[in-house]
Amino acid sequence: MNIEFDLQSVVFVTALVVVVAGVTFIADTLVRRDEVAGRIWALAYLSGMLTVVSYLFWAANGDAWWAVAVGNAGYVATAGCMWVGARAYNNRPGFVWVFVVLITVASAIAVIIEGPSGGDWAGAGLMFIAIAAFAGGAGVESLTGSMGANPNARALAIVLLLQSAYYSVRTVLFFTGGPDTQLFQTGFGTITTSFIVVTVTIVGAISMSVLRADRARLRGVRRQRRPEEISGLAIGGLEALADGWMKRGSGYGRGIAVLAVRFDTLSAVATAFGRHAADEMCTAWTESVRAHCPPFSAVFEDVPGSLIVVTSIDQGTDARTIADRIVDGLLDPGMADLGGIRPTATIGVALSDPANPAEGARTLIDRAESTVQYAIVLGESVVIARDERADTSAG
């Protein structure tokens, strides 16, 4: 059975889908106190809307060749913002947005250089390469870190990697045979591209809305801090406390262990039973960690469901035993009955070197944080970073 698609109808439907999804996502961003990733993704949809409007204006007015420059830049910015937003969700520092801005501007300049004679495909080569790279980066980023640990990001990663592969092949065909070849027109022309755009738009809107809703639910979990936590923060904070322990312990061959503890099922509790239940469970889990970590340890709450434990240890002490005791504590009968959901935790451990107290607590905390992300992806309950090269041992 052959199905014929009318080009104008497909283009109109594509534009309608992008605009409706974009308006909905942006409006939802404006009415909620959204985090950085959500705002960047909203910018991606705004760029996508600018792209379809520009291309429609170019189609209606052939003399407005500059609209192609705006459309190409908007399309590149859309893919770039997807990548930057995913990195922001995973709390990855860096100035990759500068690179995205430069490539976006270059995509517009490429069209301007060709001028009115460039036609529909002016600057297309650079645009194809940029979209393939940014979509691929966003897809890979969606499979790592906090996004990789969230099953709702899998569909987004798949469509982004599909888009990257599509534009990679499209780029090769564009430079080898040109856009007028039968293969390019049939398999990689406007109609096929429109279906790719619609798929990425719809799946992206759903996945990213769920991802930021999960974050919003956890932001809604608030737990009153214990007096000792407030006092600890008042005297200089966790890093100052850990730095002091490292310096004083180095003369006795003692170091510290930093444990980054993540409560894996907190998001599921918040989704199934609401913020109040998640608040109560978060409090119970935190108390369990306090009860099962070594005496005189410092336990600080980073965000709800995320704890940093700092404890002084003797040289040769097995840090895995400390982490295993915390994990096992969540399996106590009283904990297992909370909300009908079995509580689980993932722990990343970083150990200091007593001979190098100047290493600094910030370095150890960062190492523990990256190790727990690695453990989540690996599916292990405890992973220990062995040295500053982030070599790990799963258990």
TrEMBL record:
Residues 254-388 form the GGDEF domain. It comes from the Bacteria. The keyword Membrane applies. The chain crosses the membrane at residues 12-31, 40-58, 64-84, 96-115, 121-143, 155-176, 188-213. InterPro entries: GGDEF_dom, Nucleotide_cyclase, Rev_trsase/Diguanyl_cyclase. Keywords: Membrane, Transmembrane, Transmembrane helix. Signal peptide: none annotated. This is GGDEF domain-containing protein. It comes from Orlajensenia leifsoniae.
